[in-house]
Amino acid sequence: MSTISFSGLATGMDTASIVSQLMELKRAPIYRLQSDRTNYQHQISSLNTLKEKLTALQTAAQALDTSNEFAALTATSSNEDLLQVTANSDAAPGNYNISIESLAESQKSRSQGYDNTLVDVGTGTYSFTVGGEAQTLEITEYTSLEGLAERINTEIDGVSASIIWDGSDSGGYFLSLTGEAGSSGAFTVDASGVVGGQPPMFTETTPAADAHLFVDGIEIWADGNQVDNIVSGLSLDLRGAEAGTEIDVAVTTDSETVKEQVKGFIDAYNDAMLFMETSLDSSGKLYGNTTARSVMTRIQNVMNASHGGNGNFSMMAQIGITRQQGTKALEFDETKFADAVAEDYMSVRDLFIENGASVGKAALFDTAIDQITDSVDGMFKIGTETLNTRIDNIDSSIERYERSIDSYQTTLERKFVAMEQMVAQLNAQGSSLMSIGSWNQQQ
Q1: Residue-number span of the structural domain to which 171 is assigned
Q2: According to the 3-state scheme, what is the secondary structure of 327-362?
Q3: 267 contact partners, CB below 8 Å, separation of at least 6
Q4: Residue 83: helix, strand or coil by DSSP?
Q5: How far apart are CA 151 and CA 162, in angstroms?
Q6: Which residues sit opposite 254 in a β-bridge?
Q7: What percent of the residues of the chain are helix, what percent strand, and what percent coil, each to the nearest 5?
Q8: Exposed, middle or buried, 208 (CB in 10 Å: 0-12/13-18/19+)?
Q9: Last residue of one domain, picked from the residues 253, 281, 310
Q10: Which among 185, 228, 226 has a CA at the least distance from the CA of 207?
Q11: Residue 267 lies in a domain
């Protein structure tokens, strides 16, 4: 920026103001570039907001895009004191009749009686076989009965140890071992590798046994009281046994949970779509932005894509999801949706999830948004880079304009200074001539 100063006293002109106005005219292209830069910055900010809204839509879609996430089945037991049951995504609506004849039992073994818990149990190797697998416990120094119980609990899998006192003054302390419920939890203990002290010799007091139950008249022996592989999709928690007592298990669709999941998806879709519509309007910050327009087109195409479907439903409109009149947002008829779920849950589910060759809306949106927001070659990445390049070019142009204007201002100010100096010189010469003429007249 020029540092030349002048007042225009010789000419009487406000030369500083004239130069300032000329400079303002010269800066007009810079102001246009600055306006463009602000516009591009606003577009980048709006694209980031749109990306956040699409990420929220993707999150909502991911809550629906597999059978496990879309699962909304409820299992109930008519007698929860005897049986509690839960359903996962592999379950199917239906009813089952179950009776529990006996629960799975854990093997229990007990040692001989000891006078106290500090007795030395010897040194050497205690060999355990639990569920057919061998485990060893090495005793290398003095270990009490109490210490042996602690080491079994710490080092031997599938067996727990405790000390029981029957109240007797002599021989009243017993080391008790308990395995896991079911035949696979059976165990043996071999203390033949132990020398010295008083190693425990165990006697089985309760044998391991499998649970015995009937499911729809089919006799079943289950290895444990947590049974997950008898009825597809159901987890049975056997809590008690009453031979011949029938328990009704019902698996039903939970339309309320499914409805809330789908509503969340539609709300996220409408939020993103409304933002795009508003931003792409002639008064919006993304007006004319090709990235936002392409994103909107891609999202609309995913929603409008046809779906073969499985079962009774093949279109969103059949389950209560329709386009709002005069807008790109969706309407959700919750009553119609609940009726569709009750009529054919699997068919409704397949409109959203990926199930073999059938790819539903939620799965399609998850994939599409992944591609749109890809950090390497996604639409947002490319669009933002293009805008940043334009901003960099504008900054370079403004810098060149500023240098050119500074040079022009310096040249202009020097010309005005030269003009002022010349006018001042001429004024001085005129005054001198007038003085000479006046003196001659006086003579």
Answers
A1: 108-206
A2: CCCEEECHHHHHHHHHHCHHHHHHCCCEECCEECHH
A3: 60
A4: strand
A5: 11
A6: none
A7: 45, 25, 30
A8: buried
A9: 253
A10: 185
A11: yes
Name the nearest CA neighbour of 211 among 100, 103, 81.
103
The residues near 154 (Cβ < 8 Å, ≥ 6 apart) are none
Q: Which residues pair with 218 in a beta bridge?
A: 215
Same domain for 64 and 90?
Answer: no
86 and 225 inside one domain: yes
**What's the half-sphere exposure (Cβ side, CA atoms, 13 Å) at 138?**
1
Same domain flag for 217 and 366: no
In a shared domain, residues 307 and 350:
yes
The answer to whether position 326 is within a domain reads yes
Coil, helix or strand for 196? coil
Same domain (yes/no): 193, 115: yes
Per-residue pLDDT averaged across 235-258, rounded? 90
Which residues, including other chains, have CB under 8 Å from residue 280's CB and lie 6 or more apart?
286, 287, 289, 292, 293, 296
**Same domain for 299 and 358?**
yes
Rg (CA), the chain: 44
Pick from 267, 185, 252: which is nearest to 223 by CA? 185
CA angle 200, 204, 205 (to 5 degrees): 115
Residues 150 and 191 in one domain: yes
Residue 379 to residues 201, 383, 385, Cα–Cα distance (Å): 74, 6, 10
In degrees to the nearest 10, what's the CA dihedral of 428, 434, 439, 443? 160
The C-alpha atoms of residue 309 and residue 360 are separated, in whole angstroms, by 8
Question: Residue 203 CB: number of other CB atoms within 10 A?
Answer: 11
**285 φ, ψ (degrees, to nearest 5):** -75, -15
Using the predicted structure, report yes or no on whether residue 10 has a pLDDT greater than 60.
no
Secondary structure of residue 163 in the 3-state scheme: strand
Last residue of a domain, one of 384, 407, 434: 384
State pLDDT tens for residues 121-133.
999 999 999 999 9
Q: Among 85, 431, 98, 54, which residue's Cα sits nearest to residue 276?
A: 54
Whether 414 is in a domain gets the answer no
Helix axis angle, 379-442 to 290-304, nearest 10°: 160
- How large is the average pLDDT for residues 58-67? 87
Identify the CA nearest to 381 among candidates 393, 390, 373: 373
The answer to the question of residue 429 being in a domain is: no
Q: Are residues 282 and 297 in the same domain?
A: yes
Say how many domains are in the chain: 3
Name which of 237, 235, 209, 244 is nearest 223 in CA terms. Answer: 209
Which tokens belong to 204? 């089985």
> For residue range 248-307, what is the model confidence (pLDDT) as tens digits?
999 987 778 888 889 999 999 999 999 999 999 999 999 999 999 999 999 999 998 877
